[in-house]
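Posting for a labmate who doesn't have an account.
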Amino acid sequence: MIAFKHIKKMTLCFVVSLLTLVFSGNSTMLYSSSSASGRMYCVHNCNSSDPSSISSSYSLNPNLSISSGGDNTETVIGTNDFVPATEESLVRFKSNSGYYYGSGFIIGKHTIVTAGHCVYDRNANEFSNFTMEVTNSQNTILCTIYPTSIHIPEKYHNSSESSPWLYDYALVYVEDEINVNSYGKYNLGVATEAFVSSTSPVYAAGFVGTSASTYGLNLWQKYSSIGTTYSPYPYPGNNYILRFTSDIIPGESGGPVYIYDSLIVDGIPVTAETAIAITTQGASSYNDSIRITPEIYLFYNQFG
């Protein structure tokens, strides 16, 4: 296992030369994607007594300045590279029945990012009933977050969709403000083609579930792991999917795939965690995530 702090420093040096990120609608990076057409999204009101109900639907068309240019089979690849995560901007999902089952991450005062299968059961055609918990590094619960509505792509909701894994992402809207000043938040970014296709260093993080004891980890505590983007790229037939080799196990679905980026905040240089994808599932030699495209970036930033 390679020392975490050393890798973190190396990642910063590598990413600066290959990655330009989108912030607040500004971009100068090169990106090519067939997903830049408007997708339909459907909304479930979490106060509804009908778990299959849809309260509304809408579409978003990207307006960024872009130059064209539960538990799945998540996998530990090679050696076990998990280290405890300290980010309080990670959240774990808890069903109203009392069991933990997935991860997500805070990106704003009203917005949590997660995987579609963490909030919607396609087989049962039902949205999940859940709360989300923020914990500290000692696994003490700092706060419980209550969802107001769930937003998923219409194609993930559609039971006849033949490739639902391409749309396995969701937005959880929270009406009561999340205290991002206390818990922090992840930035959201769009990676360049050069970064994604060149085995660049990336991290994955989330709360570990059913296989935790197999790897000497504490059940439903948060961990992170260093890996790289996976070659060959792109995913056959499209570039919606970002494949990576960072270790994940069941429970980490919905967590971020991220890099450490150098930013200037109020004139002060800071190191920030920037998510470029959302963990969804794994295979034998890589894990899969939904890549943050310009349209998905817009989808997640619609509530500020």
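Reply:
Got it, the structure tokens are right above this. The longest strand covers residues 268-282.
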